Amino acid sequence: MGTRLDMGRIRAARAVIDPVFLDSPLYRCDALWDKLGCAVSVKLETANPVRSFKGRGAELVASRLAADGGTAMVCASAGNLGQALAWSGRRRGLDVTVVARRGAPAVKLERIRAFGADLELVDGDFEVARAAAARLAREREVRLVEDSLDIETCEGAATIGLELAGSVSGGDAVLIALGGGAMATGVGHVVKTLAPGVEVICVQPLGAPAMTLSWRARRVVTTDTMDTIADGVAGRFPIPEVLDDLLQVADDAVLVREESIVAGMRMLLEDAGLVAEPSAALGVAAVLEDPGRFAGRHVVTIVCGSNTSIS
Amino acid sequence: MGTRLDMGRIRAARAVIDPVFLDSPLYRCDALWDKLGCAVSVKLETANPVRSFKGRGAELVASRLAADGGTAMVCASAGNLGQALAWSGRRRGLDVTVVARRGAPAVKLERIRAFGADLELVDGDFEVARAAAARLAREREVRLVEDSLDIETCEGAATIGLELAGSVSGGDAVLIALGGGAMATGVGHVVKTLAPGVEVICVQPLGAPAMTLSWRARRVVTTDTMDTIADGVAGRFPIPEVLDDLLQVADDAVLVREESIVAGMRMLLEDAGLVAEPSAALGVAAVLEDPGRFAGRHVVTIVCGSNTSIS
User: Fold this and answer.
1) Could you tell me which chain A residue has the CA closest to the CA of B267?
2) Do B25 and A31 touch (CB under 8 A)?
3) % residues pLDDT > 70 (chain A)
4) What range does the record give for the signal peptide (chains A, B) (predicted)?
């Protein structure tokens, strides 16, 4: 497969990542099966200290930086990468600065601070935070961590693929939230390598469709604005290298409506007993919008984060 | 240790139990640390097909019954054991009948039926269901599964202890919901064997205190009534053999108020992103009621079930 990912490096990553993030639960959720008309397995990435899958990649970033003698890093984050880097950096004595938008969910900003990172808030959307983080890293001459572009973030996510590849087979579908693309390319690469008959379907909100439009056009398509509750996957400027990888591994990329995302969150909470942030409900939303496509099949959905307010 | 439990049998149980129930997440939850004033690790027993720890013991019961040529079993259940036996029995072609009280949480009764078990409802509390199940098993001449008395139910729970014993050390406390006693005696036996300096604290609702009163009196004490939202641990007639074991392994048994249980559930949901049924919040409730006892220490709480309605 002609992506930037490599199975040997992905397998080796398991030895570097703190075990608290590995081998997350994977199980059939019969209550969702009854509601959705297809067998649904949940890969639960929220039962760890940072409540999202980002710990896997953050561990790789932080351990390599520390091994190289680095002392500080800066990232832009919708909230979950920032928490994860703060957690992984603190354990290794690294200074972590997270640039986030002022409107990010309070629960995410609070946890970034609580994990000991410096938090810089900017007005505007995630792309403004990305630009500000790049400037800050340049000024300070420290490592800029770029989600989805930096290969460690993709390799970390790809370890999820190792854990689920044994449980899927031809005809099954894996539904992956699509934002910057680290999870989709990482998991997609492993699934397509180990279980090529499995359909890899990326799911993005209609309100933040840049990567999906790019995948369909086979070239980078940007959008001027975005509007979605799925803050964790909201971006406007796809990264060309990540798009190239996504074109190799994704069978489809679909867009879902906001009301489907909300319905998916509610179904995960009420029927599966799982707190899911909006991005983590994209897979269920995709089934809700196109039940005929999945009827009678087995789908795996990655519940990738739970950093949301319940009240 | 003079209990009915045996470390060799508990270790061997891991080979029998479906892996989907084993090696459940165990992690520090810093958001609870901030709120409770002590380091809190969560052992999460809800991320599996039956959403409670009861799958471990049910797997042992069902696999041994099937191996012995049995075809049917009957149990009384507050709801979680019934779901678990239904799940484990269905996979082995066993007929499962669950006797439950009509007032049990609807989500539990629905799932018992959905897993294919026959559900018999009785008026009254859990002790009425227990008596009815015993009658039914006698009439049908089939296996009666008695939670906490049948050693498989204790051994199943005890495998949780194997998974957490390596993460606790002298001065730490393990907080265990106390109902019939399977979890408290099973986990307690393993913890006291492998990490004797760890305090084993059982937690029960003030509204259903029979086992705690019995532990304190060192003899069976029954109650005439009970009243608690923690339906999963509500019983009035402690089993003598289980009490004998509990007296060997528990350092303390504490009673908590209903409002503390509700506050614990809310804290787990809002601060930890975890759906916990009332029984699963007893550990947090115990810390809330006596913060000084735990200040600065490390406590492990087993979030033992999530079968509750969120709405």
Assistant:
1) A310
2) no
3) 100
4) none
CATH class of the B7-49+154-303 domain in this structure: alpha beta
- The secondary structure of residue A94, as a DSSP letter, is -
Distance (Å) from the alpha carbon of B27 to chain A's nearest alpha carbon:
6
What's the rounded Cα separation, in Å, for the pair B175 and B56? 19
**Chain A touched by B25 (CB under 8 Å):** yes
Q: In this predicted structure, what is the pLDDT of residue B164?
A: 97
E-strand stretches of A140-234: 143-145, 173-177, 199-205
Separation of alpha carbons B177 and B180, rounded Å: 10
Tell me the CATH number for domain A54-145: 3.40.50.1100
- Sequence-distant (6+) residues with CB within 8 A of B73 are B61, B62, B65, B85, B89, B94, B95, B96, B97, B137, B142, B143, B144, B145
Do B269 and A49 lie within an 8 Å CB cutoff?
A: no
Judge contact between B281 and B265, C-beta under 8 A.
Answer: yes
Q: What are phi and psi of A102, to 5 degrees?
A: -55, -30
C-alpha R_g of chain B: 18
The residue extents of the domains of chain B are 7-49+154-303, 54-145
Interface test with B, best of A22, A26, A27 (most B CBs within 10 A): A27
For residue A46, the chain B residues in CB contact (below 8 A) are 273
- Contact across the interface for A270 and B114, Cβ inside 8 Å: no
CA dist B230 → B52, B177, B234 (Å): 14, 10, 7
A7-52+151-303 maps to CATH 3.40.50.1100: yes
> Residue B311: what pLDDT?
67
Closest-CA distance, A275 to chain B, in angstroms, reads 6
Domains B7-49+154-303 and B54-145 equal at CATH topology level: yes
Q: Do B31 and A114 make contact, defined as CB atoms within 8 angstroms?
A: yes
B311: closest CA of chain A, how far (Å): 8
User: Is A114 in Cβ contact with B273 (below 8 Å)?
Assistant: no
Give me the residues of chain B with pLDDT under 50, please. Answer: none
What integer pLDDT is reported at residue A310 of this predicted model? 81
Angle, alpha carbons A223-A229-A233 (nearest 5°): 55
Please report the beta strands in A249-311, taking only residues with DSSP state E, as ranges in sequence order: 252-256, 298-303
Spell out which residues of chain A touch residue B27, defining contact as CB-CB under 8 Å.
20, 47-49
CB contact under 8 Å between A310 and B269, yes or no, is yes
CA dihedral for A189, A191, A196, A202, sign (positive or negative): negative
Per-residue pLDDT tens over the stretch A123-168: 999 999 999 999 999 999 999 999 999 999 999 999 999 999 999 9
